[in-house]
Design a protein that fits this description.
Length: about 120
């Protein structure tokens, strides 16, 4: 004889799932997913419910406490573009540490094609 389902337990599971869904909807990620199409703002990759976990919310000003309800500080980025965005910021900070603010950057002076015209005349 099959075991009877525990209706009280099932009710608790469903109630908890609904509570978690409401909490997600109230979060800035939930709000952003309601406001914007599920498309990466950089590479244009589209997302659906199966791969939505790979779409992240990027704070344009990098302040995770700045969450205006109109979404003006957010953009949806895929995991790869989001990582690239933050890597770009870290690289810029490291570069600025290696170069003195008063030191002018000098352009490259080497010309790899300087003697090419003379070499072509010889043939």
């Amino acid at each position: 004889m099959p075991k009877q389902p525990d209706h009280a337990r099932l009710d608790r599971v469903v109630a908890e799932a609904r509570r978690q869904a409401d909490a997600r909807a109230d979060s800035y990620r939930g709000q952003a997913l309601k406001l914007f199409p599920w498309v990466c703002g950089r590479c244009g990759r589209t997302f659906d419910s199966r791969n939505l976990a790979q779409l992240t919310v990027h704070h344009k000003d990098h302040n995770h406490d700045n969450n205006p309800p109109d979404g003006s500080n957010w953009e949806l980025l895929c995991l790869y573009c989001h990582d690239a965005e933050h890597s770009r910021d870290m690289d810029a900070a490291l570069i600025s540490l290696t170069r003195s603010a008063n030191e002018p950057s000098t352009p490259a002076s080497h010309n790899p094609f300087a003697g090419l015209k003379d070499l072509l005349k010889k043939t």
